[in-house]
Specification:
Elements (H helix, E strand, L loop, with lengths): L4 E4 L2 E4 L12 H4 L1 H15 L22 E2 L2 H6 L6 E4 L4 E4 L26
Antiparallel strand pairs: 1-2, 3-4, 4-5
Length: 122
């Protein structure tokens, strides 16, 4: 089976791979250990954190409005339809909408209604 990756402004956005049951999910959404490993990379490389623990961030710069925060319908199903979660396309883990990191990028979240315009990712 072929797996596709699409690009939005230089950011790879995981394309859902169709399976016999009609869809598949990125491995970190189904494997808690892999999700935790990827989250740890985000903590170490991008200072992923709860803003309540850090007063030095802009309230407007939370994961829930980051250009890498994927909340498409298919992705939400993969994550159990928790409205406070999104899939971080940069670090490949399920992240909290109310958290932040130093890699935050304007222009999100990624949703099904996204018009395909470029996200400004560095």
């Amino acid at each position: 089976m072929i797996s596709l990756t699409i690009m939005m402004g230089g950011m790879p956005v995981d394309k859902m791979e169709k399976t016999e049951d009609g869809r598949s999910c990125p491995a970190p959404t189904q494997d808690p250990e892999l999700n935790d490993e990827n989250k740890q990379v985000a903590v170490e490389d991008a200072n992923y954190r709860n803003p309540a623990d850090d007063g030095g961030f802009k309230l407007s710069e939370v994961c829930g409005n980051c250009a890498a925060f994927n909340q498409t319908h298919d992705m939400m199903e993969c994550m159990g339809n928790n409205p406070n979660l999104g899939y971080c396309q940069m670090y490949k883990f399920m992240c909290s909408a109310d958290h932040t990191c130093d890699s935050w990028a304007e222009g999100g979240p990624i949703t099904d209604s996204d018009d395909g315009s470029e996200h400004d990712i560095l």
